């Protein structure tokens, strides 16, 4: 499901700079190649097909077929994984890498009045009932600053979980924009093991909560960038 009319744009009109988050640009970053990820029952299905073909004496598998995969005709990442960090409008003002920079959590922890808040989905897929792939964006605007979170959340049941977060922080008085990106990934069973069964009658409920997954999955990459106008 693509919500193509949904978008969020942060704009500095004086500097002719903006950054926008929309579904189509995010999907352009999905790789047009085999991701190598298979559903949990793929090996059982492949072996069953091979036994069936052997029994029937049919030669339906090509030389490209091995024990791990079928011959894939249309190669693309069926999990729709995207490392989309927003669409910038100005070629002149660009983010510069500064991994020593951090989001000012002390300022974000202050209970400022929220002037504007929104939460929207850009695209979502249930992966043929094998999990979920979803990209959503949240934004909250206060008097002195704003924070935007773009989150790609992937769960392939009994295989893996993945969270790619991009946060945009703007401090109005300082004319500074910080973009922090984090990638979390882990095996499904390893993350599930961190959940205490006593917390819920459904031990897998936590893996449907992207916040819980992000907090309990190893971070494999972090990058921070900044623009000072």
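^ Assign residues to that structure.
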């Amino acid at each position: 499901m693509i919500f193509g009319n949904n978008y969020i744009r942060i704009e500095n009109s004086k500097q002719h700079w903006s950054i926008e988050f929309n579904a189509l640009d995010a999907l352009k970053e999905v790789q047009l190649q085999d991701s190598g990820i298979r559903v949990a029952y793929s090996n059982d299905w492949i072996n069953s097909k091979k036994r069936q073909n052997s029994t029937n004496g049919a030669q339906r598998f090509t030389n490209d077929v091995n024990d791990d995969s079928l011959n894939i005709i249309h190669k693309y990442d069926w999990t729709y994984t995207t490392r989309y960090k927003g669409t910038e409008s100005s070629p002149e003002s660009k983010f510069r890498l500064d991994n020593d920079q951090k989001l000012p959590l002390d300022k974000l922890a202050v209970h400022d009045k929220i002037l504007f808040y929104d939460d929207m989905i850009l695209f979502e897929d249930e992966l043929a009932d094998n999990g979920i792939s979803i990209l959503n964006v949240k934004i909250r605007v206060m008097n002195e600053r704003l924070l935007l979170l773009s989150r790609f959340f992937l769960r392939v049941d009994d295989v893996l979980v993945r969270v790619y977060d991009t946060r945009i922080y703007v401090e109005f008085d300082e004319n500074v924009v910080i973009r922090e990106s984090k990638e979390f990934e882990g095996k499904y069973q390893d993350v599930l093991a961190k959940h205490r069964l006593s917390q819920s009658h459904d031990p897998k409920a936590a893996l449907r909560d992207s916040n819980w997954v992000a907090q309990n999955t190893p971070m494999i990459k972090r990058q921070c960038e900044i623009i000072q106008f």
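Helices lie at 23-27, 42-56, 105-108, 188-192, 210-215.
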